[in-house]
Amino acid sequence: MSDSKSLTASESGTVGIIEARTGKAFVLKKGQSLKLINTHGAQVIDFFAFALDVDLRPLPPPTLHFLSMQHTRSGNLRLSPRSGSKLFSNLRKPMFTIEKDTSPGVHDTLVPACDPERFRQLGVQGHHASCAENLQIGLEEHGYSFPKDFTPAPLNLWMNVPVKEDGSLAFVEPVSREGDYVVLKAEENCLAVCSACPQDVTPVNGYSQKPSDCHFEIL
Asked: Would the pTM of this model clear 0.85, i.e. be above it?
């Protein structure tokens, strides 16, 4: 299920870019924080995380656990987390705390990551980058094996999916602004993967439907 090799922690002070349509993985020690910046204001980041042991090695079953949106909703009694909220794993353990959120706080916990089948259903011909594939690439780059037929539902930072009075959902433009950022503090050692969502068929990345770069900083 996972490799026993210890991973190398991301160095505090590291800054960089998550290029549009691609992903980036970070090995975070308990107490480190990841600052994610919506550089151009309308880009969604799919955020995934998987717990590591004290030696920064992937955990084997049955102790394997990962960030879970259903448990996060239950733990906070909210559809969308906000500053101060905990993000919980499938074992109901807190994995992150949202230390700061300068945006209006509209994020999504309901919608699964885009994947090849999603784009086929939207009429795309041929290969199209997706958050599910970006997740697998990020995990494989760190020697972390996870079933390719299962993608945990991500925290969709800045994704705007309003729930209407009749219970229906909609995909609309993010309300985040240029330079808004979120700071996520790791409550345990983990491998986090961020995908600058490649969605360019629906307006989840703005009505221009043009995915853009985001920036990050390890604190």
From this structure: yes
